[in-house]
Design a protein that fits this description.
Elements lengths: L1 E3 L11 E5 L7 H17 L2 E7 L3 H5 L10 H10 L4 E5 L3 H5 L2 H10 L4 E7 L3 E2 L5 E2 H11 L2 E5 L3 E2 L2 E2 L2 H10 L5 H5 L4 E7 L4 H4 L5 E3 L11 E9 L2 E10 L10 E6 L10 E11 L7 H20 L9
């Protein structure tokens, strides 16, 4: 798979099928569009192209207003696993706010990508002031002879699968429900950083990771998690919160990794959220805190570790 990071770097592709969108989260609804594109490409012996953005368009106008569900690196990795030939992953910038809908289709889709088929969601908009929409694409597809496939919303039961709904689940701490809509569990990665090291002094050492402010953080509480460290998978109890028992005042994400005792300061680890165990609370002293932490780790151990063995990441 080739990744193209600017409009100027697009070499003329012989023929292509293109799906366009921010694809924030690459949830199951997005996956339908991409699967249609790759299947069409194979059936017609042409290239599949995903046209997307490094930054959320809304954040261009209102910086920091929307937090990400996945990183750019994870987005690229998933698209590669889905068999996409080209990913155009460009910044949403001033150019994208000024180009007309007609010029986007003519200059980019037709002249640079030689598009034969465009696949988009029913509510898709693009170009200057969102003037590009399904109606315009329908008109230009007839004028220039490319086909157009409009995909309706994908629902699970009565719920429309959307990034907005998945964000709500994350913020509510309903991480065990996310897989149904996202197609995978929610993950956060960060460098293991030094902290107060209180956990080590009471027998529950934790890996405290740096917080990526661009990523959405689950609701404060204690979670059962899968932890990826140095190419291996472990399980843990992760606390997202402020450590009220010891008068903490800064949000932290720290994980007691079970059956693990290595120095990983400075390493980047990944936390995969499996379920929310309980709320964070202030205990009446360290001994009460230790008792609850033991219950949390026992729960994770019994439910996850007793049924599984550590495996290497493929």
């Amino acid at each position: 798979m080739d990744t193209i990071t600017s409009i100027e770097k697009i070499d003329t592709i012989k023929e292509s099928v293109v799906t366009i969108g921010n694809f924030d989260g690459l949830h199951r609804g997005h996956q339908v569009l991409i699967k249609k594109a790759t299947e069409y490409a194979k059936a017609n012996n042409i290239s599949s192209v995903v046209f997307t953005f490094k930054n959320h368009p809304v954040n261009y106008f209102r910086p920091g207003s929307i937090q990400n569900i996945i990183t750019n690196e994870e987005k690229i990795k998933i698209l590669k696993s889905m068999g996409v030939d080209y990913v155009i992953n460009i910044p949403f910038d001033e150019y994208m706010t000024k180009i007309s809908g007609y010029d986007f289709v003519k200059d980019i889709l037709l002249d640079k990508l030689n598009v034969k088929n465009v696949i988009v969601g029913h509510d898709f908009t693009f170009a200057r002031n969102k003037e590009g929409n399904v109606k315009l694409l329908q008109e230009l597809s007839k004028q220039y002879g490319f086909s157009l496939e409009i995909v309706n919303s994908i629902k699970l039961g009565d719920v429309r699968i959307s990034s907005t709904y998945i964000r709500k689940l994350i913020l509510d701490g309903s991480v065990e429900d996310i897989y149904k809509y996202l197609g995978r569990n929610y993950k956060l990665s960060g460098e293991v950083i030094h902290s107060k090291k209180l956990g080590r002094t009471i027998g529950f050492p934790t890996a405290n990771i740096s917080i990526n402010k661009n990523m959405i953080i689950p609701k404060v509480g204690i979670y059962a998690t899968k932890v990826y460290v140095n190419g291996k998978i472990y399980y843990g109890a992760t606390n997202i919160g402020y450590n009220p028992t010891v008068n903490g005042d800064n949000l932290s994400i720290e994980t007691n990794i079970l059956n693990f005792d290595e120095d990983i300061y400075g390493k980047v680890i990944t936390i995969e959220f499996l379920e929310r165990i309980r709320d964070e609370k202030k205990f009446n002293g360290i001994e009460e805190l230790k008792s609850q932490l033991q219950k949390d780790t026992n729960y994770v151990c019994k439910k996850y570790i007793c049924k599984r063995e550590k495996v290497m990441i493929q």
